[in-house]
């Protein structure tokens, strides 16, 4: 007599757009890239991201220089860097901050 078909094994690997969310919430064990729940955090927009990548992004020296330059020049709102008089001033200030 033939053997009865076995039930398909439930995957522990999360795939697709919501994979990090599934892992973080404990529905799956890891992502395709190998991230476990302990490697995932929520960013300020509520998206689930890699802790390592998030930390690396926060150490971006150019972004910090631009933020400091904007504060020093008192700029508010959108200012395209190196375009127009405000943008050129912003770029120059950021360069000096970066070099100091």
TrEMBL record:
Q: Name one GO biological process term.
A: chromosome organization
Pfam families registered for this protein in UniProt:
DVNP (PF19060)
Q: Name one GO molecular function term.
A: DNA binding
- Which InterPro entries does its entry note? DNVP (IPR043928)
Q: What is this protein called?
A: Uncharacterized protein
């Amino acid at each position: 007599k033939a053997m009865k078909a076995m039930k398909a094994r439930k995957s522990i690997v999360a795939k697709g757009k919501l994979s990090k969310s599934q892992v973080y919430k404990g529905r799956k064990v890891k992502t395709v890239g190998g991230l476990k729940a302990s490697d995932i955090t929520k960013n300020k927009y509520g998206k689930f991201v890699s802790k390592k990548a998030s930390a690396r992004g926060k150490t971006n020296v150019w972004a910090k220089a631009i933020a400091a330059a904007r504060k020093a020049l008192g700029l508010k709102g959108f200012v395209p860097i190196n375009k127009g008089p405000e943008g050129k001033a912003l770029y120059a200030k950021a360069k000096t901050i970066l070099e100091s």
